[in-house]
């Protein structure tokens, strides 16, 4: 056997190449410069590598490459003409434009010879920033310090100080590594934590598969803690800290060592935003069990929920005073910047042992340094123009437009998904994705098992081949057993995104038609009635203008929540209110378009101004339309009454996001049950809010009645009602003739209200 030793140019070590006959049973022989078989085969690849899975660029994407080649043919037979990549958070790949200031600075950094003439091309602050960066690092083509260029690390530290405030110690640039994207930092940290199956890291389920794949590659154990997919209480995707502790105890009992926990905030793929209280609970738990925290905070600029804010783990760790070890990760691939290809990331260490930090430095030294232009771009992005700078007006406009556009699309996607039968999606509070749960018929699940595929994987393949839309199956992120999901980005251009969602809906309806069994057909009843605008532009304009001319309301405005019945039934209730003079003041109305039929009665009474917020998405009034924050403030300022109707699926959002705002503003919350509403039994938050007295201290239901349009007399009587008695729930089934409530709804009422003779106090009706 011959042995040759070559020194590779620029390499830090010798490379040994063995040439000769194969050893043992490996097939293949070499002679006369040719070999049979390969030295490196799939069978020889380490099992850890084979076991590592990264679904974001897995089988679905591989299949899309083949479809892309077919699309290049003029006579292709595919039912679509383009592929839409909704599988990955890659903004510029789907039309996002880079921020002007940072790209101008980057262009001068990469070509310093332009500096002298740049004043005629670029604003003064761009030139000044580029000169500053070039002065600190004249040669961007040379290797830098393995932690990153010191000046850039100082700028990142300044950003962290501004973000976390003066209540915590200043960030030390020596605790910061500039990396090729956040992923490089995550993988390096895991290398110093994971070595064997007894080394465990807690990861969220669902999770970004970088974590599970990296842990598998290192031979460790990923311990999944399931997020609670809560469609009832309004918590959305929530972390259950008690569940995490149970997982820790269980792994310890098995002889394992839980080294740490990975937390993604805002969540990927779930889009949840963690509260300060939840973060503090996690910090205290890690202090109790001596675990390290990996805080993946790359979406910290992507917050869409009006009542949510980003809170860093670093800030909470310092404020608690606990010596919890923390690695924080940030990136310029997300946020409003979307510079994925430039590969800029940050790893920040808090309370990390100095000897461990040295080992991390050694690992980064082995790859020399992150790309220098990416380092500069990261520093620039975290230190954008400020008011007074020449580039600030354009930067501010670009930033606002990007964030507003993403926020609209986050709402658009979840709303459209929730209109598809068998699909439900929690609001995307942050990040760049929705993660809807999809009902897959039993026959389809069995078919996928026969094919050896996860059911949601097969579903996503079918959707890809029918629509050209690329999404990622939930099984690639992990999900609760018995549920199926997929991740879809909110990134494509808004018009294209609407078309994509329509294609997905059409596909899913056909899919249900093909696979639903007779006993599953009820799911198709969720199909919403197509929205057909019935009103002239003049009438719509008149309705909107009512908001501008509404008079000041009474001193104690109300928010009236109408539940159940048809839109016509609830519209009839409003008509009766107008006819019988119940209540006075002006109303802001959200809900179904049937209400508008009763606008003349409201105007005729001369006691009401009715405002309907138009759904700009489709020109109709279907479904609940969230009131924008600015509009909420205007409504409160005018003390306008607000009427909300519920379509069932939106009740929790109203209870948890809308009602608290108006309660803080001094509104009294009244609830009307129109007709009988069996579906409300599925909305457990309603019962919980009642039991907790969240509507008001002693005010739960203003009235219950049925067949409102035909029962105006009953409505008139209710003007004098101040309390009501409910039956003892002795009606076994159906609707009780005494209280008009079906069994499911009765079970949600406070216990005292179900005892014979015990009154449930109601909000007195206006005289």
Automatic annotation (TrEMBL):
Keyword Electron transport part of the UniProt annotation = no
* GO MF entries: ATP binding; kinase activity; L-alanine:2-oxoglutarate aminotransferase activity; pyridoxal phosphate binding
Q: How does this chain assemble?
A: Homodimer.
Keyword Nucleotide-binding assigned: yes
Organism, per UniProt? Symbiodinium natans
Entry keyword set? Aminotransferase, ATP-binding, Nucleotide-binding, Pyridoxal phosphate, Signal, Transferase
Q: What is the protein name for this chain?
A: Gpt protein
Which residues does UniProt assign to the signal peptide? 1-24
Which PANTHER family does its entry note? ALANINE AMINOTRANSFERASE (PTHR11751), ALANINE TRANSAMINASE (PTHR11751:SF29)
Zeta toxin domain: which residues?
A: 552-725
Gene name of this polypeptide: gpt
- Tell me the ranges covered by the Aminotransferase class I/classII large domain, including all copies: 118-503
Q: Which cofactor does it need?
A: pyridoxal 5'-phosphate
